[in-house]
Design a protein that fits this description.
single chain; mainly alpha; 2 strands
């Protein structure tokens, strides 16, 4: 089966798909919840608050950061993570626009 090239799609749909992929794992959703509950940058507490191994949490944080949902800043030997609230708000609006367009029976709405 042939694979569609990402370049064939609107950039906003490609970006939204990247966010959807980052949100597609329950461990990542849990990590977002931990970061949201802390309301600030979190260093090692993410692992303590998670049923996942440190290496797994690190991989999930890497995915969330690549999708732009979290920011990470190096503080000495540690990296501290926090939500990118503007990116989360934008993703919420983009998903709402997508679902509204789909429910209206049309193609996903593009900017």
């Amino acid at each position: 089966m042939a694979r569609a090239k990402r370049e064939s799609f609107a950039p906003d749909l490609v970006a939204l798909a990247r966010v959807a992929r980052a949100l597609s794992h329950p461990g990542r959703l849990h990590i977002l919840g931990v970061l949201a509950a802390r309301r600030g940058c979190v260093c090692g507490d993410v692992v303590v608050a998670s049923p996942l191994a440190q290496s797994t949490v690190s991989q999930h944080l890497k995915e969330l950061k690549a999708a732009g949902l979290v920011r990470g800043e190096v503080e000495g030997p540690r990296t501290c993570y926090c939500l990118d609230e503007a990116a989360l708000a934008a993703a919420g609006r983009d998903f709402a626009r997508l679902f509204t367009g789909l429910l209206a029976g049309g193609q996903p709405q593009e900017d």
